Amino acid sequence: MGYYDLSSLENYFIGKQRIKNQTTNIPYITVENYPDLGLITSLRFLEWVSENPSGVISLPTGKTPEYFIKWTHYLLKNWDDDKIRSILKKYGLTVKQKPDFTNLHFVQIDEFYPLDPYQNNSFYNYVNTYYLEGF
């Protein structure tokens, strides 16, 4: 995918917006609320993982990705359910197989110092608990 090429999922959401003539060089998608943002982000992430099974990712921690994490866990856990297949189809996600995360490389860019990485408040613990164990 080139610099300005959009995925089928991104094209779907941009096409559904009321913004007809975007004036920025980088296309954008507007959403009504955080749960919707979490769903869009989760769907795009799953699409990306399917296209880049050995990719390198760095994911945010804290409150920001809360709905992204919830949606991703929900979609992956229930991947073969008709309800999930309906959601994927509705939003134009053409991924047929459940994305495989085993060859992804996670890069952690933050940590509190001198906090022990194994303490509950560490970014290391957050990434392991909410991302790696859930994905």
What is the gist of this entry?
With 135 residues, the chain is mostly helical. The chain contains five helices and two strands; from the N terminus they run ααβααβα.
What features would you describe in this structure?
With 135 residues, this protein is mostly helical. It has five helices and two strands, in the order H-H-E-H-H-E-H. A two-stranded parallel ribbon has the order 1-2. The longest helix is centred in the N-terminal third of the chain and has 18 residues, at 34-51.
Question: Which characteristics define this entry?
Answer:
135 residues; mainly alpha; two-stranded parallel sheet; 5 helices; globular
Number of helices: 5
Portion in helices: 40-55%
Low-confidence stretches: none
Radius of gyration: 16 Å
Strand content: under 5%
Total number of strands: 2
Helix-strand sequence = HHEHHEH
The main pleated sheet reads as: 2 strands, parallel
| Class from helix and strand fractions | mainly alpha
Strand ordering within the main sheet: 1-2
**Mean pLDDT over the residues:** 84
Give the end-to-end Cα distance, rounded to a whole number of Å.
25 Å
Global geometry? globular
